[in-house]
Amino acid sequence: MTREQTAIELERAQDTAYQAFQRKLIPGVDHILGVRMPVLRTLARQIVKGDWRAWLDDSIPDHWYEETMLRGIVTATAPMEWEERCMRIDTFVPLIDNWAVCDSVCGSFCLQDRQAWWQFLQPYLSSEREFFARFGAVMLLHLLEGQDDLPRTLYALVRVPAPGYAARMGVAWALSECGVRYPKETLCFLREQDKLDAWTYIKALQKMLESRRLPDAWRTAVREQKQIKKSEGSKGESPEGYTF
Fold it and tell me: Which residues pair with 237 in a beta bridge?
């Protein structure tokens, strides 16, 4: 499938009602056709069955949100060696300009060599670029395999320096997932650390409470820790001034 054929298929699959819904869900992104994710994943599989390298390397720039989404899914799922995947991820990540592309693509990778992934993600986690950092944080969420991974994951997340809203929310989401899976260890860690800004800290606790997977026995403790953090004298602002 060529890029031109892909554009035709995307236009055929347009759902205007879904387009309106997505534009509300992803503020600031207007270049949305409105193609549902199952359709995009089917198209991605068709691309991968063909000359996917030619498709990725085509010089035609992405016009639609869905084209960038497809680019990310193909990058994540096409059969290639680790070195090439790293190169293609490094080429793709600068194209991310919204949380939906970032998070959907992050969930598409097969994470076999977790130590190699851990090393690869370090520059993203230390970046101050908003979606570089969100990519790193959300990938850590998927990379967390068990309790043995928890300490290094928590330490890495609280040290993410990027101040952008999407980056901070990505860190909060990843921390909340750690907390849902390992509430005792995560809450203890958050109480004892001093690297995380109050806004992200409280957002992480809030997202824990929003999860149905958080054990009921821990909900009171999370609420109490959230209230303590809010009453510690913080102005309630993130590094870029986002209020609670």
Answer: 243
Cα–Cα distance between 218 and 209 in angstroms, integer? Answer: 9
Q: What's the angle, vertex CA 172, arms to CA 171 and CA 176, rounded to 5?
A: 115
Packing angle between helix 65-77 and helix 99-106, nearest 10 degrees?
Answer: 20
- DSSP assignment, residue 13? T
Q: Which amino acid is at 84?
A: E
pTM, two decimals, is: 0.93
The residues near 91 (Cβ < 8 Å, ≥ 6 apart) are none
CA 6 from centroid of its chain's CA atoms: 25
Q: Are the C-beta atoms of 64 and 98 separated by less than 8 Å?
A: no
99: number of Cβ within 10 Å: 22
Q: Fill in the amino acid letter for 185.
A: E
End-to-end CA, the chain: 47
Find residue 243's DSSP bridge partners: 237
237: three-class secondary structure by DSSP: strand
Compute the Cα dihedral for 66, 72, 76, 77 and give only its sign.
positive
Instruction: Render pLDDT for 148-163 as a digit per residue (tens, 0 to 9).
Output: 999 999 999 999 999 9
The two tokens of residue 180 are 């849902």
